[in-house]
Write a structure and sequence with these properties.
Layout (H helix, E strand, L loop, with lengths): L50 E3 L3 H22 L19 E3 L1 H4 L22 H10 L8 H31 L8 E4 L19 H4 L3 E4 L17 H9 L16 H5 L9 E5 L8 E6 L2 E6 L5 E4 L17 H14 L2 H18 L3 H4 L17
Parallel strand pairs: 1-2
Antiparallel strand pairs: 3-4, 5-6, 6-7, 7-8
Helix pairs in contact: 1-4
Length: 385
């Protein structure tokens, strides 16, 4: 399924790839790396050209990925092998285009969907760093009506239910082929979606809508029904995969920030565990870093004011506490923690220099402007939509 490496020939670590989807032309959205100044595109860049019920090539591709996974599991059961195995199944949904079969779109009536929170139309003022990013890659201004916004949300939710059904088929195949009792399963995603909150769509920011992704783990050594309050990240999957297959950690692995999800799921909750995220890419005026620990979540923007949220009391991040003198010590502690790990200014400069070098490697700004601008990554064998 969806892998999104440069190409099938890239050193991905997979012994075999089935119907893989990699970056369009092995390039991706090169123009998005243009900064200082940002790219001035000859025509607007739009994510949402189609919204609503229908069937896209991505929908058909996801169905094919689920089917291929089911067939692989059946073939594995028919020819037993004592060696442990790993099967990665990558789905595109709920990625745009926001098109989904009608039975899933109709699950979310528009009159039941609330209007996005903190929308600038109601007077909300975006953080200055976010406002700049939104000016580069923002999509909300393309909607003509409130109904169109709600249709986009309904279609996204429908795509979540659509992919849920496809995941269900794979889990059914796992059970039907007698693998359920001795197979560990990790369900997660690479990012969330703002869905109009703060006038934002897509990812690219540090708010919960973008960074708080699903993480569900099951298996013979995972307690059923437990909700762990230990913060985890995608970095934890590395050690999970290595140790779950019975391999020892290599030199240096133990020093990585990840820990086995199986170990975390069976341990006492560690609510004070520190987890981080960062963003330097498309539309970002400077590097941004997120730190989450305990009840608090801290956003650092190089060259801009920080944000601080108490996630326990304010899970929707409606109230930025960064200027609150009563929690000044919390704000200071987070900045000290960040700077103890890295130099944000130096990393910001290095990120910009790396992006500039990338653009030059493709022939400079004018050439890079057209690379990745028209159409998303196509389904294998199809032209970009």
């Amino acid at each position: 399924g969806k892998l999104h490496y440069k190409s099938e020939e890239a050193p991905t670590g997979f012994s075999r790839q089935h119907q893989p989807m990699h970056l369009k032309q092995g390039l991706g959205t090169v123009w998005g790396a243009i900064k200082e100044p940002f790219a001035d595109l000859p025509e607007p860049w739009r994510m949402f050209n189609k919204i609503g019920p229908g069937v896209s090539n991505y929908n058909l591709y996801d169905r094919g990925s689920a089917s291929a996974a089911c067939e692989w599991l059946k073939a594995r059961a028919d020819t037993p092998d004592e060696q442990p195995w790993v099967l990665y199944v990558g789905f595109v949904a709920p990625h745009y285009p926001l098109v989904v079969p009608s039975q899933f779109f109709d699950m979310y009536p528009l009159d039941k969907i609330p209007f996005p929170k903190l929308h600038p139309r109601g007077g909300y003022k975006q953080h200055p760093w976010v406002e700049i990013l939104d000016g580069v890659i923002g999509q909300d201004h393309f909607f003509d009506t409130e109904e169109e916004r709600l249709r986009a949300i309904a279609a996204y939710m429908g795509l979540c239910s659509f992919v849920d059904a496809e995941v269900g088929l794979v889990l059914d195949a796992l059970r039907d082929n007698d693998f359920e009792d001795d197979t560990r399963v990790i369900y997660t995603s690479d990012h969330g979606d703002n869905l109009g909150a703060r006038g934002l769509w897509g990812k690219s920011v540090l708010y919960e809508e973008s960074t708080r992704i699903p993480m569900i783990v099951s298996g013979p050594d995972v307690p059923k029904g437990k909700i762990s309050k230990t913060p985890v990240t995608l970095l934890d999957i590395q050690q999970t995969a290595v140790t779950a297959l019975g391999h020892p950690l290599h030199d240096g692995d133990a020093e990585l920030s990840g820990r086995s999800l199986i170990e975390l799921a069976t341990s006492t909750d560690d609510t004070e565990r520190l987890v981080t995220s960062e963003y330097h890419a498309m539309g970002a005026p400077t590097s941004a870093f997120m730190l989450r620990q305990g009840d608090w979540k801290y956003h650092y923007y190089e060259g801009y004011a920080p944000e601080l949220f108490n996630i326990a009391d304010d899970p929707e991040e409606l109230n930025d506490r960064a200027a609150d003198p009563n929690v000044k010590s919390v704000l200071n502690r987070f900045e000290e923690t960040l700077r103890a790990q890295l130099d944000p200014g130096a990393i910001d400069r290095r990120a910009k220099d790396d992006l500039a070098a990338l653009i030059e490697s493709y022939g400079g700004r004018e050439t890079a402007m057209d690379l990745g601008r028209s159409g998303a990554t196509p389904v294998p064998g199809q032209k970009p939509e």
